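#struct-pred
JK: can someone run the complex with pyridoxal-5'-phosphate? inputs below
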Amino acid sequence: MARVFNFSAGPAVLPESVLREAAAEMLDYRGTGMSVMEMSHRSKAFQSIIDQAEADLRKLMGIPDNYKVLFLQGGASQQFAMIPMNLMKNRVADYIVTGQWAKKAWQEAKLYGQANAVASSADRTFSYIPDCSDLPISENADYVYICENNTIYGTKFWTLPNTKGKPLVSDISSCFLSEPVDVTKYGMLYGGVQKNVGPAGVVIAIIREDLITEDVLPGTPTMLRYKTHVDNGSMYNTPPTYGIYICGKVFQWLLNLGGLEVMKERNVRKAKVLYDFLDGSQLFHGTVEKKDRSLMNVPFVTGSQELDAKFVKEAEAAGFVNLKGHRTVGGMRASIYNAMPQEGVEKLVEFMADFEQKNRL
Ligand SMILES: *Cc1c(COP(=O)(O)O)cnc(C)c1O
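RT: done, structure tokens with the ligand placed:
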């Protein structure tokens, strides 16, 4: 068995110990004589899996009691519609457009009301985070929306926007559980888990209680109302049971490591290896403003498309896979989520240094 170093942006690398545990429990989950995949979501065994997962997530993130935790489906993309359907009471919301995912969310919200782009970094290919300390927030905005870590462009909000008292809604798909977070600063946080938390098919939404009401836009389907899922403990219909089970194992893995403070230290140390190399390299260059760099997604280029392609190909042959940049931006991107070991980044940097030696421009 040979495991590669997988730099995929998502679905992405998971902790090896989690995969091993899941493998060991595959045929007989703790004496039930069946796999979690085969189990009723109404069974005692599954109820305890989802309860434990929620309790562990609450502990990891310090989620206060007045926030609900929902395990949903439909990907982060479905939230682009669910958020306005449920939260746009005045039919006005302000969006900060820092990349493709934020842009998609903004475009979707326009289907439901007045969605204003109050700031954008489109002028420089989303390579930075705009100053959001004094934006023209709409008087009657129902919320202010951000994509906190821009998976494609490799930028991160290190300071949250000043929302002037409006609830902040944040897509944290690609920085989920990568560092401690003060949940009280948000009205809602959500993310698809396939970047940093688990397998594709689960979306976790953390929503302040007072924002979850019956007062949703007319025509909002039952399945797309947060209240439906709150009232039914995320089991209005069959939830993505196996995915939730794996997320639960990742939460345990994080708790055993010492929690999100420890995870952040690791992530900072790990990303530094790659950024320091990029800053000293004659061949490779980071594409993002330094102050806005993500710890999770690191895009870089050589300046030559041919060399980029050569690099991606040779890296893959050497066991460093999925380094090709997003199809819309080209170049390379190394996604170095929680489960990417330090060793993976150190070896990648050695490989890059060697490639640079052999391919000086
Ligand atoms: C991947 C990603 C999405 C889209 O997720 P889906 O689950 O495919 O809908 C949205 N936002 C961010 C920040 C992402 O990284």
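RT: quick notes.
The two ends are 37 Å apart (CA to CA).
The longest helix spans residues 260-280.
JK: thanks, will look after standup
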